[in-house]
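Box 3.1. Reading complex inputs
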Amino acid sequence: MRRSQYALVAGLLLTSILVACSPAATPTPVPPPPTAAPALPTTAPAAAPATGETAVNWELVNPEGIVKQEKVEVNAHPASLEGKTIALRWNGKQNGDNFLNRLAELLTEQVKGVKLVKLYETDPWMNISLGPPYGSPDDAIKAAKKIKDEYKADLVIASQAD
Amino acid sequence: MVEVEKAGIPVVLVTTTEFEGLAKSSAASFGVEDLCMVPVPHPIGMIPLEEVRAKVDAAFPEILKAATEWKPQASGSVQAREPYPAETLEIQGTVDDVVNVYYEKGWTDGLPIIPPTTERVAEMLKGTTRKPDEIIGKVPPRNGILTVEVVAANAVMAGCKPEYMPVIIAAWEAMLETSHGWQAQTTTTNPVAPLVVVNGPIVKELGIQYSTGALGGGPGFQPNVTIGRAVNLIGDIVGGSKPPEGDKTTLGQTANIIAMVLGENEEANPWTTLAEDEGFDRNASIVTVFGARSRVNFNLHDSKTGEDLMRVFADTMASAGMMAENMKPCSPANKEVLVLSPEHVAQLANEGWTKETVRTFLWEHTRVSVEALQLRFSANPKKVDVQLECYEDYKSWDGIPLVRKPEDLAIFVSGGPGKHSVYFSTNGYAPVAKEIKK
């Protein structure tokens, strides 16, 4: 844009600002009130009270839905790990196996007679999320049964790495 | 781990600090309100081995203590109320006050809601013949009980018309099928959002958009947008799946606010419709729900032949679906989604391609080499091995295909004029189709 063009644009801007800020030469006519309220958009259900700015009493529905869940009692932990069998379960997330490997080293070093079952080595099928989409809905039950009946674990330590 | 506790074996769950809340709420949703957990500083994944070992060393005393001294502390929070009728609350104030109360209670997606007055909810219930006390299911991870009345309350909040109720109900019936895996889909770090496809006469009856900008918005898009919002509100409020707890999506996507709802452009589809592929009659009104993750737009204006078009589809889908996303061979119900634009499908059909030949071509050409996958999982090669074992005969194939078999490509037509087809990578769970019953 040339300098003369800048001057022209600036001039037009100034003029429009001055016009906008000046009192109107003739007052703008006030439109007559509508004879009937304009139709409301159909978005809201008909029962909507048009009281956006007025405090009124509202009776509202809690949209949360209640929670009713049968409680599963958790099991008592052993008083000592000595001589106990501990199953180590990895969820397949990267480094979770490394985490459990180090844990196994420490347990072996520090807990007398502890037996460890690395499920991620004995049962790699347990290394991914159990159940759909990777397996059938009863995979978790199958895994729990194996940990109990076959490995006779006293405790499971699971790494939920992420 | 819940099943392990149920089997009588105590559990110590080591989780990272970022995921402790989700682990707790997830266990609680299965009734284990007080699972023993030891949080360690996030992350564990993708850090050097020495750091992992150091984190174990630091946490070891706590893990030992948890293993031998931990006692349950939860007092139990079983609610005595019945699912129906829903609790009501009285507020004196303006619309803004109501909206703010709902914000404060977490009963919103972040946008203002339309107050669900008892009158409005009653009006909304007129859109369905289902009884208000009928239970659709429990919505994870919170496992809130979803009654038809609660659907109506959320539909009011989303701005729906009563006649949209059957679509919302059918969508949630689909999402709560076990095979759809909503618990995992809504809590994952992946940006999963519902993709809700509607087929049949109800598309035109309700004015669900299926042509230009079907996934867009505007004055004519009320059904798509408000049904989508209601679907997500139910997940957020009844399911309690809201970031940062519950929904752990790393970045998320806007379809986590308003689920993607669109009709199939059946007039432009020379082949069977999506609902027909799912085994339904063409004249039935059907909703099909996918758990959608990535979305790739094929901006293809210059393909000489249909095969040229499909080669681009295949290369891109293989790369996006298996390298950026991940392969899902161990997910037998998984289907990947290709939404063909009317002009692209016309080009294919005019050259004699059928849906079956398109699927077979794409199955044969959406391949990634085992070496490439090993590179993708370089820090976790065992994962590749486990996944490949899910194929019976992958060693004889030229690369690993995006889906297990050609039929696992869900193909339908939507959108208006223009040359843009779309690929949606899904989350590995089954898409579920349900008949929309008024």
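In summary: Chain A touches chain B through 82 residues (CB under 8 Å).
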